[in-house]
UniProtKB/TrEMBL annotation:
Residues 10-77 form the HTH gntR-type domain. Keywords: DNA-binding, Transcription, Transcription regulation. PROSITE patterns: HTH_GNTR. Gene3D superfamilies: GntR ligand-binding domain-like, Winged helix-like DNA-binding domain superfamily/Winged helix DNA-binding domain. InterPro entries: AsnC-type_HTH_dom, GntR_C, TF_FadR/GntR_C, Tscrpt_reg_HTH_GntR, WH-like_DNA-bd_sf, WH_DNA-bd_sf. The keyword Thylakoid does not apply. It comes from the Bacteria. Pfam families: FCD, GntR. This is GntR family transcriptional regulator.
Amino acid sequence: MKHSEPSADLPQGQDAYRRLLAEIRAGSLVPGDRLLEVDLARRLGISRTPVREAIRQLEADGLVIHVARVGAAVRSLDPGEVTELYEMRGVLEGTAARLAARAASVVELDELAAINAEMAAGFGNPARLYELNRQFHAALLDAARNRYLARSLAGLQKTLLLLGPTTLEEDERARNAVTEHESVLTALRARDELGAESAMRAHVAAAHSIRLRQFRNRAAGADLES
């Protein structure tokens, strides 16, 4: 299992939280995994107190639940919840694109284009693609200039971490994502608010389709193993 590195700049509880969050995102910690304080303290090289603090924070985020006779565990999502998440993501990010079409500066549009160009040059490097994709969506949200929308998306994005590694690990999905970003950019440059929202909703719907396929494949694999 690949683990995240500690940070000397953060209090131990916050650092433990950050590292566990990174492991959930990377798929090193998967839904259903138990979070045992003793084991985590030993693995992270810290005492149980900051581990307990990190687990409480993950629970407040909705990423960890307490299971009877098991204790703290990474929360599992069912396909219905995944669909609800992506439906909400489509609404929120579509709105962000619509607002950005109205409010984004030329500099911000150029930044979005530059990020997407880097993505086009980064196929085959999922970690880099994930970070660039995150930057693209964050820059678009900044360009929307709506702090309440940003807060709503922040909570949603944490829950989406439960889905594990990025869909951009698949080359075809990565190439399609770049093309979909370009469609959003075309509408943004034209100041086409409805077109930008529609393009972003289509982008989110495509990602949702990949996630559902991954769920079906995991379920089929589990049936074969049982």
